# Entry
Amino acid sequence: MAVANPEWTYWAAEFPAVTLNAIQVDAFYTIANLLITEAFPDGMQALAGGVFNTVAQIGKAVGLAFSGLVAESVGRKYGTLTGYRAAFWFSFGLCIATQMVSFWGLRKVGKVGEKKQSEDNGTETSRV
# Structure
């Protein structure tokens, strides 16, 4: 969206941007939620999922607030369209930073659903 031209059709810029955004956010949220809940014992998984959801919602609110701030401050100085473009570039930068943090954080996760041996009693446990 940061490079979209107002004269272009919806299918040239807006549709790919909206589609890719939904895929990235939904995939990241689902995988992260599964990994967070898996890291806790059975009795604490619901709490871990709830805390993760709360932190995710606060992060969205803060991200939207900062995007609005960027759009407003740049838009006052250079015009509304330039402000929107700056906000989209800011959002794109946040998405790239999120991906880098995700790849770094997931580097030692292993395979989800794989059976592993318990060290204390030798029984198999499955990973979600």
Observations:
- The chain has a mean pLDDT of 83.
